[in-house]
Design brief:
16 helices, three-stranded antiparallel beta sheet, 2 domains, Receptor-associated Protein, Ubiquitin-like (UB roll), mainly alpha
């Protein structure tokens, strides 16, 4: 539950902000632990319904976190104190949610918490990967370099994800539009023409009979079909929320012909990039595997990385564990083994990350080049079949007259 507060700092300055807590008493206790003298604490949910709805859907875009990381690195490089850094950035943040989060982080730092512990309280903005990277930077004393690493990683990951998503949006939009137009044609336009064809009493071609049957089905049972699709979508959404559903979805995504290969390369690039970034910051292989498992965003690879972490804990090599699963290509396993043997695992992972990023970019460019002509041919066939089923019987009818 979110609470807004007004309080005085140890220096006597008035300060306002928000805090997440189970109830008001816990919120007060958390604020007191930060060394604040509380003036007022109110539940943020006390606003209008539409305000609560807007707050529910608020989020911090990845690009804002990228810019934030670069700003933090610059300020740390200028030897600005951590508290001052987050106070300054909170004042300049345009996103309301990010501004509140940075203010809360600054309050926690002022209360004696480390930067990583303060960031860890806001997992909807700063992932486990982000927090652990910051913690490693605190331990090594290279926070500005760590934030530069984070900004560069998030920038690469964001660009790759956006490019992949955009490549799939266009065909999805065109196919959806085509289906909607065809349904409207079959339920509103075609039935009137079909009535003329049937009343003429002439022999109806088989393809026209098929189209008439589809039109009749949509008119008579279209509502039931729509309800069934909605219920199916709800069931599927709830099923995907279960561990079994997440695993099934993860397996399905990487098994789709053509597109599955694209997603597989995307996940492999993400794994290699995550591992390289964390190992470069001094995080152990086991911890790097565990964190990567949590942020890879595919249940199949999440399970495999968790198994790899357990294997490394028991003394096995990472390449050995990876080699037991076909989800990791043989070439990737061999390259990682070379990195382990030569002590250059970090550099090897960077090479793998760059390789798979190029593969994803090339695959996306190829798909974009193929999708447009395929869609044009498919849409042409669909429209041509519909027109043929109408025009040929009408032509035969006019010829007979």
């Amino acid at each position: 539950m979110l609470f807004t507060y007004k309080a005085l700092t140890k220096e006597g300055e008035e300060h306002t902000g928000s805090v997440d807590a189970l109830n008001r008493d816990i919120a007060i206790r958390l604020l007191q632990q930060r060394g604040l003298t509380i003036l007022a604490v109110d539940a943020a949910e006390g606003g209008h319904f539409w305000q609560r709805r807007i707050a529910l859907f608020e989020r911090v875009p990845v690009k804002d976190v990228v810019i934030l990381s670069r700003q933090i690195a610059t300020l740390f490089g200028a030897e600005v104190s951590a508290l001052r850094v987050f106070r300054l950035l909170a004042q300049e943040a345009e996103n309301r949610l990010l501004r509140d989060k940075l203010t809360a982080v600054a309050d926690d730092i002022q209360g004696g918490a480390s930067i990583s512990d303060a960031l860890a309280k806001h997992s909807n903005v700063f992932s486990g990967f982000y927090v652990n990277m910051v913690r490693a930077g605190e331990e090594s004393g290279k926070l500005n370099q760590t934030f530069e690493y984070l900004a560069a990683y998030l920038d690469r990951s964001y660009a790759l994800t956006v490019k992949t998503r955009n490549a799939l949006i266009y065909p999805a939009f065109v196919i959806t539009t085509f289906i909607v137009v065809m349904v409207l044609m079959l339920t509103m336009v075609f039935p009137r023409l079909a009535t003329i064809i049937i009343e003429a009493g002439q022999e109806i071609p088989i393809y026209t009979q098929v189209v008439i049957s589809i039109s009749d089905f949509l008119i008579n049972y279209g509502l039931f079909l729509l309800v069934a699709l909605v219920l199916g979508a709800i069931w599927l959404w709830r099923f995907i929320g279960t561990p079994r559903g997440r695993m099934a979805l993860g397996r399905f995504v990487i098994s789709i012909p053509v597109v599955g290969g694209l997603f597989r390369k995307l996940y492999l690039s993400r794994i290699a990039d995550n591992m390289f970034t964390m190992l470069s910051s001094g995080i152990s292989i086991v911890r790097a595997l565990e964190i990567t498992a949590a942020v890879v965003n595919n249940a199949v690879y999440e399970l495999l990385l968790a198994e790899a972490a357990e294997g490394v804990k028991s003394g096995r090599a990472m390449s050995e564990v990876f080699g037991e699963h076909t989800e990791f290509p043989g070439i990737m396993v061999q390259i990682i083994r070379i990195g382990e043997e030569t002590g250059e695992l970090g550099n090897i992972l960077k090479t793998l990350s760059d390789f798979y990023q190029r593969e994803v970019n090339n695959t996306v460019d190829t798909l974009v080049g193929l999708i447009e002509p395929i869609l044009i041919v498919g849409l042409g066939l669909g429209v041509g079949l519909l027109l043929t089923s109408v025009l040929i019987p009408i032509y035969n009818l006019s010829s007979g007259i």
